[in-house]
Every structure is written in structure tokens, then in C-alpha cells.
Design goal:
The chain is of the alpha/beta class. The chain has two domains: about 200 residues, no CATH class; about 325 residues, Alkaline Phosphatase, subunit A (3-Layer(aba) Sandwich). The chain is about 55% helix and about 10% strand. It has 21 helices and ten strands. The protein has an eight-stranded mixed β-sheet, sandwiched between helices. Helix 1 packs parallel to helix 3, helix 3 packs antiparallel against helix 5 and helix 3 crosses helix 9.
Length: about 550
């Protein structure tokens, strides 16, 4: 290998390995900065130029390549978590999300398309490890002092040293002092990732103790309470979670022009139907996904903001709002059209009946990831679930998913509820609208469709309430979480709207005392010690107290 070829190989290896480690950071920063250089890349490339070519150096190159690509994968996962869930990646808790991503891809691209994506991804990882290992394998003409005296590689060494000095001299461009600039421009991504994930592991070990303390410090069961939920008078209660319905839909100027007119219409329509409507807000434990944290927090009265807490809840013998209703004589049901696989969590939560995708007699088309439109889910509640209660009052939890990404197609709300039947009426929209790939190539169009999908979800709930809700039902409609930072922007509140509807004003009165206000819009006054922003885990104990004399 000539000196010039060796130099090009050395610089190429440095460029590739440095970029490999820094790309996730540049994605988060939105450009090439503020850090430019990964010190681990410089060290490994320099080591590969100086070590002798042997079996051991080749093995070391493969180990280093595997470590570098693994770091890249974890850092890209961290970028995805921050962009979609507004939090850092925690490998200890988030490894199970790989299956959730697979299900999302299958719903969007089909089983074959998702399989192709995964196979291409796995192939790309192996190719990356192989390519980086080749770059880090020492060349035949390794640098030795004897060869340097002979001149064979001196040019490569001088050029490499010059490039290194130039790089670290460039560090000083953006800073007033060299130490500050070095701290600004130089990174240790491999070490940083290892330290952060190790710290997360330690925090999760401590989280077990904190959660056990939370379990011990709050009421687990209300089964012995006199008059448990007697204030409901045996009325049905429906708790409906609307996917990605956050306060940004009402407050962000990009979405408010779509949602606020719908809420104004909701006020007018429900008032003309003789219904009482009030609205508040609650703080959700997640953003952008992991809806089960919000569901679990509402039902359990515990703050479930990570997977460990959720798993510990399911493993405990703690009762939930589901049990409270059962002890009060209710039949309990979960209607979960997004559940397409076995759902042992539902059994652990103790529902009398679970209607997942396979137990819902939907004969219409899936709409990309969305297995069925919200209007059908509402119709199924009336047509099938309520009659199954056998005359007992019903507590039903609904997971409404039409406003789940990819937000295409957007359906209209049908006026003829009696004609919905088994859902074949929705065949007309099987191939309507843009494909997810077409839509997601334009971020502005994605945001537009997000607003329209939430508007559809609220419209469907409004239409259901106007037609079916009367004095004998309390309907609670709330968002499960805010959408991803792509939609809200960074730093958005995790608050979600909560609407309560009934034909009996007495069922709404406790919510007004809790800080809700009449109508479809939550209070605009900022939280105060007298009226704090409640969290979802506050709901269970408050609800039991409010409706148990």
C-alpha cells in the first residue's frame, strides 16, 4: 500500500467511524453541532494504524465494530424515544417496544412489508459491522519506527498527525477559551451511552423500592366501604380514552382552528339533546405512546410513568377501579380494538369481559394501523356490550384508536347509526386518502391529518353521546396522552382534556366541585394551590370518594 493510499484509507476510516458515532447527536441537534468529534473514533483509528496485522488485531477490530454499531443502534433508539415519547431511551424498560414497532409496521405496511423492513434493517446492521471491522483492521504496511526511518509511511503519519492537530485546533473556533471549546466540540458517545444506560439500570432498581412504598401508602381496596359508588345510583359508567388527544389540540394555533369549532358544536349539540357537559384536564404519565400507562394510572390510583411500575402493578394484588365497580355490583368490560394478540394484562386487571380485535364482530376493512373506526367501536358498545351486561349496571373502558398515527384515511361520521351493523358500511374508505408513505413525506400534511383525525374522534364521541346517553349513564371522554413532539413541539405540557357527559346534572356536579367547568372547554386559569393540575392517578380515589356517600 502506498503512502497516499494509506493516508486515504486512514482518513476514510476516521470519517466513517466518527460520523457513525456522531450522527445521532447531529439528528437531535438538527445539524452538525455543537459537537463534531468522537474521541473514541480517533483512538480506534489511530490504534488500527499502529497495531500489527494479526489474528488478535482482526478480532479486536470485530469487537470494536460490534461495540460501535451497538452504540449507534442504542443512540438512534434514544433519538426515536425523544422524538416520539419525549423522554430518553431506557434499555431496561424499552426493549419490549420492539414488538410494538413491529405491530405498527404490520398495520401500516402489511405483514410482508414489515418483514421486509426488519430483514433489511438486520442486514444493514450486519453490513455495518462488517464494513467498520474492515476499516479498523490494521493494514499490511503498519507503521513502525524502522519503516518511518526508511520513509515508507512517513507521509501517512505526518498527514494523519496534521489532520489530528487541525481537527483539535478547529475545536477552538466556537469558544472564547480552549477548555470550553474542547468541551463543546468533542464528545465521548460510547462512554456516555454506557454511563447513561448503566445509570438508568440503577435507577430502575431503586424504582422498585419507591413503587413498593407507593403501594403501601395508598388505599388498595374499597370493598368494605359502606355505600361503595352508591352515588351513581346504578347508572352505567363509560370511560373512553381517545388516542393522542392532548391539550395541544385545543391550544396550539396549528390545530385549534380545527378542534375548537368542533368543541363549540359539541356544546350546542349536547345541550339541545338535554345533556349536561363539563370539561377539565388531567396530567398524563406519558407522551406520544404507551397509552397503557394512562389507562393503568386512572384505574389503579398509582402514577405509572414507566414499564417497571406498570409490570409491578400487574404483579401485585392491588385492586383497581375495575374491582371497585365489581364490588358495587357492576359488570365490567374492556373494549380494545387495538389488541390483536393475547392480552394477559386485561385478565390481571379483572374485567368480566374483554372485547379485543378477535372478539369484536367487525366485518369492515382495517384502515392502515387502525383496526376499525371509532364510530364502529361506539356502535359495538351499544349493539353488543351493553346487552351482554344482563341487566346489571355496566362499567366499560374503551380504547378509541382512529386518532392513532398514521392518521390516514380520515373518515366522516355517519348519520345513520342503525346502518353501521358489522362495519361493512366502511368498505367505501378501504383505500381512501393518501397512503402512510405519501402522507409522512410531508411533515405539514402529517400535522394537518393529526388535527383532522382528532376532530373525527371527538365528532364520533359527540354523535354517540347525543344519540345514546341519557339520565342512566355517565360518560367520561379523555385523551390518553399528548401526541409526539413532532406534533406538539418540544416542552409541551402532558395535560389532556377530560369531558364528562350525562343526562342527569347531579352526576356532573362532583366534577364541577373538582375543578371542571361547564361546557366543552377546560378552565383556562393556570393551576394554583387551590385548584392544582390533577394527575391521572388522582382519579380513582377522588371518584370513589365523590360517589360513595
Amino acid at each position: 500500500m502506498t503512502g497516499s493510499r494509506g493516508l486515504m484509507r486512514l482518513l476514510g476510516a476516521l470519517l466513517v467511524v466518527n460520523s457513525l458515532l456522531m450522527v445521532p447527536h447531529w439528528i437531535l441537534e438538527g445539524g452538525l453541532g455543537p459537537r463534531w468529534f468522537a474521541l473514541e473514533a480517533w483512538f480506534l483509528v489511530a490504534l488500527s494504524a499502529l497495531l500489527p496485522r494479526s489474528l488478535w488485531s482482526r478480532a479486536l477490530a470485530w469487537v470494536a465494530a460490534t461495540l460501535l454499531v451497538a452504540t449507534l443502534l442504542v443512540d438512534l433508539g434514544d433519538v426515536a424515544a425523544r422524538k416520539s415519547l419525549a423522554r430518553p431511551l431506557n434499555l431496561y424498560l424499552d426493549i419490549h417496544l420492539v414488538s410494538a414497532v413491529r405491530h405498527l409496521l404490520e398495520g401500516t405496511l402489511g405483514v410482508l412489508g414489515a418483514a421486509v423492513v426488519f430483514l433489511v434493517g438486520i442486514g444493514a446492521l450486519f453490513a455495518a459491522v462488517w464494513g467498520v471491522a474492515r476499516l479498523l483492521t490494521p493494514p499490511e504496511d503498519r507503521l513502525t519506527w524502522a519503516r518511518l526511518r526508511a520513509g515508507a509511511g512517513a507521509a501517512r503519519l505526518r498527514a494523519g498527525a496534521a489532520a489530528t492537530l487541525l481537527a483539535f485546533a478547529t475545536v477552538g473556533v466556537a469558544g472564547d477559551s480552549a477548555p470550553d471549546a474542547v468541551e463543546t466540540r468533542v464528545a465521548l458517545p460510547v462512554i456516555r451511552t454506557a454511563v447513561e444506560q448503566s445509570r438508568s439500570m440503577g435507577e430502575m432498581l431503586e424504582e422498585r423500592e419507591r413503587f413498593q412504598a407507593a403501594l403501601a401508602g395508598s388505599p388498595s381496596s374499597y370493598r368494605d366501604r359502606d355505600g361503595l359508588l352508591a352515588g351513581l345510583g346504578g347508572r352505567d359508567v363509560t370511560l373512553a380514552f381517545v388516542e393522542s388527544y392532548g391539550m395541544s389540540a385545543l391550544e396550539d394555533p396549528r390545530y385549534a382552528p380545527v378542534l375548537r369549532p368542533r368543541l363549540e358544536a359539541m356544546e350546542a349539540v349536547l345541550d339541545s339533546a338535554g345533556l349536561t357537559l363539563a370539561t377539565g384536564r388531567l396530567l398524563a404519565p406519558s407522551q406520544g405512546g404507551q397509552s397503557w400507562f394512562g389507562h393503568g394510572s386512572m384505574l389503579s390510583g398509582l402514577w405509572l410513568d414507566n414499564q417497571l411500575r406498570y409490570d409491578l402493578l400487574l404483579a401485585s394484588d392491588r385492586e383497581t377501579l375495575v374491582d371497585d365497580f365489581e364490588h358495587a355490583g357492576y359488570r365490567t368490560a374492556a373494549i380494545m380494538p387495538a389488541i390483536t394478540l393475547a392480552w394477559p394484562e386485561g385478565t390481571m386487571l379483572g374485567y368480566d369481559a374483554i372485547y379485543d380485535r378477535d372478539r369484536i364482530d367487525y366485518g369492515g376493512p382495517p384502515l392502515n394501523w387502525v383496526t376499525m373506526p371509532d364510530q364502529f367501536t361506539w356502535s359495538f358498545l351499544e349493539r353488543r356490550v351493553r346487552p351482554d351486561a344482563g341487566g346489571r349496571p355496566l362499567f366499560a373502558e374503551l380504547g378509541l384508536i382512529s386518532s392513532h398515527a398514521p392518521w390516514t384515511p380520515i373518515l366522516p361520521v355517519l348519520d345513520d347509526w342503525d346502518g353501521i351493523g358489522d362495519g361493512r358500511v366502511f368498505e367505501h374508505w378501504a383505500d381512501a386518502g393518501e397512503t402512510p408513505r405519501e402522507l409522512w413525506s410531508d411533515a405539514d400534511r402529517v400535522r394537518e391529518h393529526y388535527a383532522r383525525s382528532v376532530e373525527y374522534a371527538v365528532h364520533a364521541a359527540q354523535s354517540y353521546a347525543a344519540r345514546y346517553v341519557g339520565d342512566d349513564e355517565l360518560l367520561v371522554i379523555l385523551g390518553d396522552h399528548q401526541p409526539a413532539p413532532l406534533i406538539t413541539g418540544d416542552g409541551a405540557s402532558r395535560a389532556v382534556p377530560v369531558h364528562v357527559v350525562s343526562g342527569d346534572p347531579e352526576l356532573i356536579r362532583p366534577f364541577l366541585a373538582w375543578g371542571f367547568q361547564p361546557g366543552a372547554f377546560p378552565p383556562t386559569t393556570p393551576p394554583s394551590p387551590e385548584r392544582p393540575l390533577r394527575r391521572m392517578d388522582d382519579f380513582r380515589s377522588w371518584f370513589v370518594e365523590a360517589f360513595s356517600p
